[in-house]
Amino acid sequence: MFTLSTQPRQVLGTFLGDGNINNRTIFGTLCVAFIIYSAAIYTSGTAATLAEPMGAEARIGQQIYQEKNCTACHQFYGLGGYMGPDLTNVISTKGEAYSRAFIMAGTLRMPKFGFGEDEISALLAYLAFVDQTGTYPPQDFDVHWTGMIAQADDPQ
Fold first, then answer.
1. What kind and span of H or E run contains 33?
2. I need a surface site. Which of 22, 98, 99, 129 has the fewest CB within 10 A?
């Protein structure tokens, strides 16, 4: 017959038979479980396909983007400044002509940098590269039992 006990080890020992559970056994079991879980997450998380490498023109656009400190006002994936819009998917949502017009003419809040046609094309190539890496904000995502979040509309 089971009796209530104030000692947790006695209760566990009643179910396990010997009553000799110690902290080292519990700690060791948790460590082994952590190592197995970490190995499973690490190996399953590295199977993602890589995006196309950035082309030469997009690299020039990235350099211009960094030199002009566009991140001070604009964001990629929600990271960056908040004065201008997020540019993660501006090419696929607004189009290249829309982006070209803003880069060429500027606005009241965005300066007109006076870029040449080659620089504008390079910036658009960089924005197109960033656009193909994913979508922001995530519209449809699944949470796996391991805690990993997979975005359903992510091209990878």
1. helix 23-45
2. 22
**pTM for the full model?**
0.63
| Per-domain residue ranges of the chain | 8-45, 56-131
pLDDT in tens, 81-137: 999 999 999 999 999 999 999 999 988 899 999 999 999 999 999 999 999 888 787
Task: Please give the pLDDT value at position 134.
Answer: 80
What are the phi and psi torsion angles at 48 (to 5°)? Answer: -70, 140
- Look at phi and psi of residue 113 and say left if phi exceeds 0, alpha if psi is from -120 to 50, else beta: alpha
Q: Identify the architecture of domain 56-131 in CATH.
A: Orthogonal Bundle (1.10)
C-alpha separations of 54 from 93, 134, 141 in Å: 21, 14, 26
Inter-residue long-range contacts of 43-51, CB under 8 Å, 24+ positions, other chains counted: 44/146, 44/148, 45/148, 48/156, 49/156, 50/156, 51/132, 51/133, 51/155, 51/156
Name the token pair of 84: 């201008």
Structure token digits, residue 143: 């949470």
